[in-house]
Amino acid sequence: MKCPFCSHDETRVIDSRLGKEGNNVRRRRECVVCERRFTTYERVEEILPWVIKKDGRREPFDRLKIVAGMQRACEKRPVSIATIEKLVDDMERSLQEKGEKEIPAAQIGQAVMDALHKTDEVAYVRFASVYRQFKDINEFMSELKDLLDTNS
Length: 152
Description:
It is a single chain. The chain has 152 residues and is α+β, with helices and mostly antiparallel strands. It has two domains: 33 residues; 102 residues. The chain is built from five helices and six strands; from the N terminus they run βββββααβααα. The strands form two sheets. Strands 1-2-3 form a three-stranded antiparallel sheet, with no helix packed on it. It has a three-stranded mixed sheet with strand order 5-4-6. A hairpin with a 5-residue loop joins strand 1 and strand 2. The mean pLDDT is 88.
């Protein structure tokens, strides 16, 4: 492991601990040259599908994009970052279990909307309004009506 301070290649592990969820290992390391300490995290490399965009382009699955979109939708709402992280973890796990090599972006968008619908309805409407790109107020009102009807 390369030292982030002096770039020397040799470091030693001082302490290792299992992460909170048990899916990563936290290691405290010390550089043998500059003797500064730093933390690294080790986890299993996950093989996630490529995302097929609307225009046909393909790009790697990007967890950070999903987290950022959900955070924007949940802004000023009583939804914690931990809850958002858990929702995205669940989505990733589901994708891995399916074992598909490619997945349409629309399928991911729908999964995000489903998760937000169960978590916070205001965040769901915010996300849906951007994701579905409503053409006019009638489409938006129709979505709100559907939401209200499912809660009745």
